[in-house]
Amino acid sequence: MSAHGFLAGLPLVLGGNVFGWTAKGDQGLAVLDAFYEAGGRMIDTADVYSAWIDGHEGGESEKFLGQWLSSRGVRKDMRIHTKTGMLSSKPPSDPGSMGDPDLYRPEEVLAHLDASLERLQTDYVDLYYAHRDFEEMEVGQIVDAFEGAVATGKVRALGASNFDAERLGAALAYAETNGKTPFTALQNQYNLVSRGSYGDDLQELCTSRGIAMLPFYGLAAGYLTGKYRKPEDFEDGARVYRTKDYAESGPPVLSVMDAISAETGASLAAIALAWLVRQPGIPAPIASARNAEQLDQLLEFTSLELSDEQVSRLTQSLDDTSGK
Hints:
The protein has 324 residues and is α/β, with parallel strands linked by helices. It has helices at residues 25-37, 60-72, 106-120, 139-151, 165-178, 200-209, 240-243, 251-264, 268-276, 292-300, 308-316, and strands at 13-15, 42-44, 79-84, 127-130, 158-161, 183-187, 212-213, 286-287.
């Protein structure tokens, strides 16, 4: 798939945000077992998952994954990606404001790394992300803090999440000038109905520097599965507050997806993910599954070949690519 050591197996990163939350117990274990048996080898999580839920404090996903890795004895086969920078003791006003700059002090990065490793029941992670940018910080401070994590031998590679082109470019320049470990992965939101966080400038930066873009919300929080179409569809569910964001711009996209589904027999979820891996710099999308049926839809995309004409129609289905 790539020279990057944090990439392996199927071109799909299993999103770990649901584990210990909406996918737990035997149901969650069954998803992980099926993913592994199908050839999936990459899992994405974060220390903050799922602190936004009442009664949760963060670390639930990592702990669940650690129990699975240990009980199955598959750690050496897997590529585990986790993140830090949002799990703060300060209560957030909303999920988008989670975290604070103090989390990127060198000692805090190391402390949170060790806590993640303990929950994951491993002594290293394959990819460690700065989960968000704090633009009030000098970007070199962030690079230096994560360099300390690499120096421990507990981190194989570094990634940036929710960074724009200017800040990511500055981080790369600082690392190069000062002999630090560069970010070699990017994780931003990007999908058929929300494209603004991976525009032309970031695409050019990633492709020219060999950075692997691993987009989150590849299915737009479930919207691109086609399950949210009528007003009543948005009345309940764990992610409805997010899917509503796509209700205005999404219908033309779903219409094109419906047509391609009729042509190929593929599910809408498979079509959405197949489009992503045809975009510049994207070796694999991140997508989550709460049960075996949802996982089957994700895995379907790995054998789906969209034609150039179908990819073009999907790309053109959203006239406004500002990321609304």
